Amino acid sequence: MQSLLSQQARVSLAHLPTPLEPLDRLSEKLGGPRIWVKRDDTTGLASGGNKTRKLEFLLGQAQQEGADTIISFGAIQSNHARQTAAACAKLGLECHLILGRSVSWDNPQYESSGNILLDKILGAKIHYVQPNDRGNKHASLLGSLKEAGQHVYTVPTGGSNKTGALGYVQCVEELVVQCQFNKIDPEKIFLASASGGTQAGLIAGTVAHGLSWNVTGINVYEVDAIKFNNRIFKLASDTAQGDPLNAEIATEDVTVDHRHLGEGYGIPTPQTIEAIRMVASTEALVLDPVYSGKGMSGLIQQIRAKELTGVKDVIFIHTGGIPSLFVYENAF
Ligand SMILES: Cc1ncc(COP(=O)(O)O)c(C=O)c1O
After folding, report:
1. Residue 192 CB less than 6 A away from ligand 1
2. Model confidence, pTM
3. Is any ligand 1 atom within 6 A of the Cβ of residue 84?
4. Nearest CA to ligand 1 atom 9
């Protein structure tokens, strides 16, 4: 297959290709389709995750523009922020993280361990803000860094814009080769979806390559379902339109399952905890309580509700998130 991305600015950060592995003990236990896992928890960058693929394109663009300093955003336990800090360390860029107190999880470790500990060890400069102060903080930080003569590139929340989403177009190209090798044609791809760039990139990639795979995002972030669907549609359309994909997204290309959010972003449901325990104890595969565990709980519940009857193969993208598991130890 011809890659659509060969002309894009890109830096090499990820351990690729990540493995595609069957989860046969889990599939047997659930009695549904054969479940395969795409191990994007093993991309590297201080314990891996989905942002690494996005950062290859975002920081490729940053370097092309001559940036020496990166600003990005996230929650205190943001995996995106940690992977950005790691990528900057590897590339010799100064990293500023604007982190919002947007999740209230009752554990004293929440603000000192897991991802935030890694951010500090990786040398990022941390700026704590209230969630609605991010814009102001960004403007003032940008001003002072520019005044000091630094060339700043801002990576959006979750790395979710057209450039970042190309990372998941590249993932589709990787999957096509792996599916051919394994002689499977997955009807559905499942993943945890939040800022939307991962799902948008997967949708844009499948459409641009003429694949019939359905990409189902499990909403782990947004209470407003319509707003969420619109965001994914817009991001997928932006990614597909113009170079390098030149494809058109239809509203039917966007599938989101909104039934698994529970009390909200960052709060695991009982089904999330059950999914984490089940997958760990049958497959030695560790998921996280905010994203991949909740995403997997959506897939498990679809199988139990017989919504995947007749489907032969599905792929679950393990988007990472493991460092935050340890600040949720009280959920277990
Ligand atoms: C582990 C993990 N999984 C999934 C996601 C969701 O990806 P996206 O923000 O591209 O929707 C994130 C985003 O932070 C994440 O950290």
Report:
1. yes
2. 0.98
3. no
4. 195
Measured from the CB, is residue 201 less than 6 Å from ligand 1? no
CATH annotation of 51-157: 3.40.50.1100
Confidence band (pLDDT; 50, 70, 90) for 102? confident
pLDDT in tens, 56-77: 999 999 999 999 999 999 999 9
Please tell me the number of Cα atoms within 13 Å of 332 on its side-chain side. 14
Q: Which residues contact 289 (CB under 8 A, 6 or more apart)?
A: 268, 272, 273, 276, 324, 325, 328, 331
- Give the pLDDT band (50/70/90) at residue 235: very high
Indicate the pLDDT class of residue 131, thresholds 50, 70 and 90: confident
Is 140 one of the annotated active-site residues of the chain? no
- Fold of the domain built from segment(s) 20-49+160-331: Rossmann fold (3.40.50)
237 lines ligand 1 (CB under 6 A): no
Ligand 1 mean position to 87 CA, how many Å? 16
AA letter at 10: R
**The two three-digit tokens of residue 215, written as one number:** 């990409």
All CATH 3.40.50.1100 domain ranges of the chain, comma separated, are 20-49+160-331, 51-157
Asked if 232 contacts 200 with a C-beta cutoff of 8 angstroms, the reply is: yes
Q: Indicate which atom in ligand 1 lies nearest the CA of residue 198.
A: 10
Distance CA 228, CA 131 (A): 19
